Automatic annotation (TrEMBL):
This is Histidine phosphatase family protein. Pfam families: His_Phos_1. The lineage of its organism: Bacteria, Bacillati, Candidatus Sysuimicrobiota, Candidatus Sysuimicrobiia, Candidatus Sysuimicrobiales. Residues 47-69 have a biased composition (Basic and acidic residues). Transmembrane segments: none annotated. One of its GO terms (molecular function) is phosphatase activity. It comes from Candidatus Segetimicrobium genomatis. Residues 1-69 are annotated as: Disordered. The active site is at residues 81, 157. GO terms for cellular component: cytoplasm.
Amino acid sequence: MPVLGSCGCPRTSITPLKSAHGSSRRLPSWRSRGLHDEAVGRSSSRGNRESSFRDRATAGPHDRDTSKRYMPETTVYLVRHGMHDWLRPEHNRFAGAIPGVGLNEEGRQEVQRLAGLLSGEPIAWIVASPLQRTMETAAILARTRRLDVAADERLLEWRCGAWEGMKIIEIQRRYPSAWKIWRERPDLLRLPGAETVEQMAARTEVAYRAWAASGGTGVLVSHQDPLAALLCTLIGAPLRAMRALDIQTASLSTSHEMAYGTVIAAINAGRPVA
């Protein structure tokens, strides 16, 4: 039964990106021009970073030190929490930031499997959204490492206002126009009481940058929509592209912070191949 839900760096095995219906999904193509408008308050700094990247990329062999260029300064495993009952088809609700939604048995088992895949990694820190399902996920990953799990509210699920706790079928009936925008152009949705996708992406990126600055290898546990928005931000894609990223439960995406910028080495890894 399908789950319903809203270079030179080390290589990681990648499970093919699947949609909720099991079909392969491909990221849409886009042009780089105008992408800076998708970011909130970061247009100038991002442009400077991209210009600096191009300058370094075209420099001659005597213009740069390549000894550490292709070794990650930081590796961050971006993990979505495990399965919970509200994601099952018979419930199919927007959990949002509602407290008390914890992992079910399936979720605990799939996170335990993910912990096994990460067992050989030198993980130095683990941070999670403070909601129950993400903290439980992080606790399973930290269990054999004697690591404390830090909670960071900037990693919370999308604050969806009136939709929080509602069944998807009810949202579709009561808010048909808004639901269509959410599915097709989430970056354009303006819902009373809800934050915008830009606001969600901005707070998630700030948290990611702060924790990545710790260095070493770490795990960041969050939710489907914040992780999809973060991945779009990290690769310079417009936020409308987040709908092409079906971030599945207990999956991990791998981000390397290199000397020349961010490299995404895997998306939705750690899931069994259907």
